[in-house]
Amino acid sequence: MYLKEVRLYSDEDVSNIPFSETFHIQAEAITDLFSSLLGKIRTENVSVININCAIKENMENPMIISTFLDVFIEYDVSEFNKLNEFEKEQQLVRLLQSGLEKATEILALDKWIFEQVFKAMEERNFKNHFIWKKPKSSPDRKLRAYVEINWGIEQTEAYIIVENRKKQVELKEKIVLKHPGRIGLDILGELIWINNYTVELRHKYIKKEVYEFSVAAKD
User: Could you tell me the superkingdom of the organism this chain comes from (predicted)?
Assistant: First the structure.
């Protein structure tokens, strides 16, 4: 079995704040980046590590349920939104490191494995920027469309970009994400060219929700 994902969350994040500002939603930008850089880490029976942040009196012993390992670290998530975005980024990295120290002991893994992942994150300046799915070429193969994601802690931005064969940008427009974090990205459906100059981004579940983008035709 391979380790596929590491998560940060807290059952104590129940304050009266917008969903986009909850701890686990903001943490997804960093945990998704970390998980994407894991490579093939073999474990005996765990595919997901859940790092649960709790105040001292709510700490629990680690447990493995099905293929999930839950470890607990002491942190009061009510303090999280008092930080600026850079401070949040640094705090999330520290929490990941703390939780994974416990996980490596339980899973008998070499700490060096995760240290290499953190090094790769640092090389990316801890920024989760990527191309969503695969680019799609127009029917005549002269244009290529893709969605660029800048997944930040406090805000996620998505752009539709259309390039020509010389990789010159013919179109760049912002896509409105109606939900924060992974939820907003999961419902992005697929890119479909309807002719040589117009591409659609269709909602994964709602058929009527379609974004249409057109590039000016050239002689």
Answer: Bacteria
Q: What is the 3-state secondary structure (H, E, C) of the chain?
A: CECCEEEEECCCCCCCCCHHHCHHHHHHHHHHHHHHCCCCCECCCCCEEEEEEECHHHCCCCEEECCEEEEEEECCHHHHHHCCHHHHHHHHHHHHHHHHHHHHHHHCCCHHHHHHHHHHHHHCCCCEEEEEEEEEECCCCCEEEEEEEEECCCCEEEEEEEEECCCCEEEEEEECCCCCHHHHHHCEEEEEECCCCEEEEEECCCCCCEEEEECCCCC
Do residues 113 and 193 both lie within one domain? no
| Structural domain count, the chain | 2
Based on the fold, state whether residues 111 and 151 are members of the same structural domain. Answer: no
pLDDT at 17: 83
| Domain ranges, residue 178 | 128-214
Domain identity same for 113 and 132: no
What CATH number does the domain containing 110 carry? 3.40.390
pLDDT digits (tens, 9 = 90+) for 152-180: 999 999 999 999 999 999 999 999 888 88
The answer to whether residues 47 and 91 belong to one domain is yes
Q: Does 18 share its domain with 84?
A: yes
Mean pLDDT over all residues of the chain? Answer: 93
pLDDT recorded at residue 219: 59
- Render pLDDT for 79-91 as a digit per residue (tens, 0 to 9): 999 999 999 999 9
